[in-house]
Design a protein that fits this description.
Distance between the termini: 43 Å
CATH architecture: 3-Layer(aba) Sandwich
Strand order of the largest sheet: 3-2-1-4-7-8-9-10
Number of domains: 1
CATH class: Alpha Beta
Number of strands: 10
Bound molecules: NADP nicotinamide-adenine-dinucleotide phosphate
Largest sheet: 8 strands, mixed
Shape: globular
CATH superfamily: NAD(P)-binding Rossmann-like Domain
């Protein structure tokens, strides 16, 4: 039986509890919190970069001028830092935030070129409007970083009858991707980079609970976050399969543990503790943005698709993220949920 958060509070779980974001890594209720191993998938290039490398370092010397990227969650945390580095390296970034005002403020702070768009992932009309706006821009998308996310809502919240973390983190991005795929395929080597988390190991033992997407049965904040992050990984896997035969690729990443606004829903004592001792085990924001930036830009990764990266290198995820049958089922169920809002 998996140990639940209430059954014991180990030292590691205590440390985890000192920050909202670290709970993404060692989530309560997780049967195998260290499911992500250092084992590497065969044949995928290993980089000289690691845990402390920054997004600036992993793009050092790259000429990214002329490339276009799209990023969700551009106004905060990892998305903002990734946009900062990409624009500094010459990429035109289309930055999406929940409101146009937030996107405009974030984009205006960039030294390079950034175009703001609104995308509220919990409202599929907003997602569709964003997708159409980006399609209307017409340019190939070299990089699509599906980065926005929420974590560990204390009480069950639903969107259209679906648990909110699953809806925002997965369904919103799944719907958005349907609009952006043509432009990624049109690029010389378009790359989807999807933010998962090692917190995917907190998902239910059997993987996605398709009979409980409402979240009403046994709602636990980190279990549902884990399920949404597992969904990000399974979506990546099926997207990669569907992109095979094109020049486009899809990979997902665990960025590390970084003290961003992601922990906003955690109790105040945990946030205070994170401020006090988080430095002992967390990455800086600059290092936190490195893995997604590396996977989005590293020339050596051209053509590699369907992999999971952490600390700027390919690693093996929890086996539940390698379940092709569940990845296919998730795609079908997600299409049903997104319905008329999907790009045909
Ligand atoms: N930080 C970590 O330790 C860690 C670890 C593993 C994985 N991750 C993943 O990294 C990604 C980025 O997280 P972060 O750490 O940078 O957190 P963050 O600072 O809280 O940024 C999250 C971004 O997502 C946006 N967002 C939230 N709800 C949204 C919605 N309904 N529609 C559109 N955008 C929405 C937020 O917008 P607002 O600011 O307007 O709310 C914000 O821009 C997430 O997918 C997260 O799961 C982070």
């Amino acid at each position: 039986m998996p140990e639940t958060a209430n059954q014991s509070l180990s030292r590691r779980q205590f440390i985890a509890g000192t920050t909202g974001v670290v709970a993404a890594t060692v989530a309560g209720g997780c049967s195998n919190p260290d499911a992500q191993t250092d084992e590497r998938p065969a044949g995928v290039p290993v980089s000289p970069f690691g845990r402390d490398s920054t997004a600036m370092e992993v793009t050092e010397g790259l000429d990214l001028r002329g490339k276009t990227a799209f990023i969700t969650g551009c106004n905060s945390g990892l998305g903002l830092e990734t946009m900062r580095v990409l624009t500094q390296r010459g990429v035109h970034v289309i930055g999406a935030a929940r409101t146009l005002e937030k996107a405009e403020t974030a984009c205006a702070a960039m030294t390079g070129t950034a175009t703001p768009v609104a995308c509220e992932l919990s409202e599929l009309q907003s997602v569709a409007d964003c997708g159409r706006a980006v399609r209307a821009m017409g340019m190939p998308l070299d990089i699509v970083i599906l980065n926005a996310g929420i974590m560990s809502l204390p009480e069950l919240e639903q969107v259209n009858g679906i648990e909110r973390q699953f809806f925002v983190n997965h369904i919103g991005h799944f719907t958005l991707a349907s609009y952006l795929t043509d432009q990624a395929i049109a690029a010389e080597q378009g790359r989807f980079v999807i933010l998962s988390s090692s917190g995917h190991s907190a998902a239910p033992d059997a993987g996605i609970e398709f009979d409980n997407l409402s979240g009403e049965r046994d709602y636990r904040p980190m279990k549902m976050y884990g399920q949404s992050k597992l969904a990000n990984g399974l979506f990546t896997r099926e997207l990669a399969r569907r992109l095979s035969g094109t020049n486009a690729t899809a990979n997902c990443v665990h960025p590390g543990v970084i003290n961003t606004n992601l922990g906003r829903h955690f109790p105040k004592w945990q946030l205070v503790a994170a401020e006090l001792i988080g430095w002992t085990f967390m990455k800086s924001l600059e290092a936190g943005a490195a893995t997604q930036t590396y996977v989005a830009t590293a020339p050596v990764l051209a053509g590699y698709s369907g992999y999971y990266f952490a600390d700027c290198n390919p690693v093996m995820p929890d086996p539940r993220m390698l379940d092709d049958a569940q990845a296919a089922q998730l795609w079908t169920v997600s299409e049903e949920i997104a319905g008329e809002f999907l790009h045909a």
